[in-house]
Amino acid sequence: MAPTVVRIDHNSPTGTLLDASAPLIRIDDEGYTRGDGVFETMLAVDSQVRKFDLHLTRLANSARLLKISDPDDAAWRQATALALESAGPGTRTGLGVEHTVKLLISRGTPDEGPYGLVIVSGVPDSTIEQRENGVRAMLLPRGHDPAEDTSYPWLLAGAKTLSYAVNMAVLRHVKSLGAQEAIFTASDRRILEGATSSVVVARRDQGRLTLFTPEPNHGILPGTTQGALFEGARDSGWDVGFGPLYPKDLMESDGVWLTSSVRLLAPVTHLNNQALATSPDVTETLMGFLRSR
Amino acid sequence: MAPTVVRIDHNSPTGTLLDASAPLIRIDDEGYTRGDGVFETMLAVDSQVRKFDLHLTRLANSARLLKISDPDDAAWRQATALALESAGPGTRTGLGVEHTVKLLISRGTPDEGPYGLVIVSGVPDSTIEQRENGVRAMLLPRGHDPAEDTSYPWLLAGAKTLSYAVNMAVLRHVKSLGAQEAIFTASDRRILEGATSSVVVARRDQGRLTLFTPEPNHGILPGTTQGALFEGARDSGWDVGFGPLYPKDLMESDGVWLTSSVRLLAPVTHLNNQALATSPDVTETLMGFLRSR
């Protein structure tokens, strides 16, 4: 089933519904020819987008790094409402009826310039399954330390761009090894992030669980779901902390999860084919922290 | 004027002409949503593609790194002939009538899978002008050393992918400084390559000019034009050599050029706003080395 697409541009500043059963993108669109654009992927439950503010803030930051004009928040909200109204039936889960909502800005064609799109579709079954059954993850060297790039704005560290070929190659690589996600490590073996997720670790100390995640702002994309999870945990009186984390910390933890906006929270059942501690109760508690966010 | 586009897929293995005045790309094309594809840009003079073999070899290598199926060489040649036959008038220069010919492979949509495109258009005036009047270039740190990535195939070092947002950001950055190209340096200040070109330096020793370029195979994309230039130079009895080169070597050289397939050869007139030695005679000689290639 074709997704539902609403386009925002200077002719339709609050969005026009397009027919996505036909091709929509021109051959000289620089989003296509150069991966020159930015995006956010969000989850809507019963037509309510979760963490809309956080995603709009991160999208605006990505757009700023690429020096590409960004529709204002009101336009995105109006266009998203139109897309969700017009969307297909979505995916029914325990949370409600779910849709993925992708916001995308492309630099467009040299003639017409930049535009925004809201793209709404169902949530893939494989994503729902990862929430329930967890994922197998592999540690994978990230090559250079992304922190080395953060001083140079033209390297776009921290921008979520359409230039995602490496992330896709990484997922293909780990799939060929029987896993579903990669967890990147720096050259000193420090844990960075998943190819499409943030890494969260629970550690029990004197009976109390504390959540940890690698230090942000070192070339790691700040995870909106990890942020919401930590906020929820803090509100419930849990302690949270920030890395550095090493493979040993994951192996010896009381639970590892990958967080991302649509998948929400997926327990890591195996790391490099080694079984990790998992606890359905703790996963349920963490899902509760996310529920209202 | 819309470019001329020929598509190769399993329904039309030697290519079908498309109408590029309408949108051609679907919204869920992973070339668009993920920059998940590869490309080559070539120059045709009087409908003859230069260095076609070298480009097809590099395209096949990029496709192999991305694990994406690649039309065979005969299909590319047939589709390119069809596109050039159907193309607009092109750009008339001293070399003849010029067209740019882009070969592109996208992973396509989940439903339809990968396809190839041949996209033919005229050569931009700004490109022709760079051949004649040269370019101003800025040295720009590449952040990490690309050599660090070459051991990990999933990082796609050496693949020319549609994920080109960083290269575009680099060009915007140097344009904001009044220059047209960036020359990347490693953290030890070693010269790497231009954002969209290879770097060639001439040095005179006892009256004889020798050409140098940074050592290949350290995360630098091997330049087909630099390769052809060195072959032509060697055939004419010149010596050629390989880096490491440092900024001082460029500043104190007897000429620096940026080579790329459509621009061919552009003398660098200024590096970081400092005038470099230029010699129209040597540029003319080097163009001669390229002429038959």
Describe this structure in words.
Chains A, B: This is Aminodeoxychorismate lyase. Two copies of one chain form a homodimer. Chain A is of the alpha+beta class. Chain A contains eight helices and 16 strands. The first copy, chain A, folds into two domains: 4-123, D-amino Acid Aminotransferase, Chain A, domain 1; 129-291, D-amino Acid Aminotransferase, Chain A, domain 2 (Alpha-Beta Barrel), CATH 3.20.10.10. Chain A has helices spanning 30-33, 52-65, 73-85, 125-133, 165-176, 224-235, 247-251, 280-291, and strands at residues 4-9, 12-18, 37-45, 48-49, 91-93, 96-109, 113-122, 135-141, 181-185, 191-194, 198-205, 208-213, 239-242, 256-260, 264-271, 274-275. In chain A, the strands form two sheets. In chain A, strands 8, 9, 10, 11, 12, 13, 14, 15 and 16 form a nine-stranded mixed sheet that branches. The radius of gyration of chain A is 19 Å and the shape is globular. In chain A, 51% of the residues are buried. The model of chain A has no long low-confidence stretch (mean pLDDT 94). The interface between A and B is large, with 58 and 59 residues.
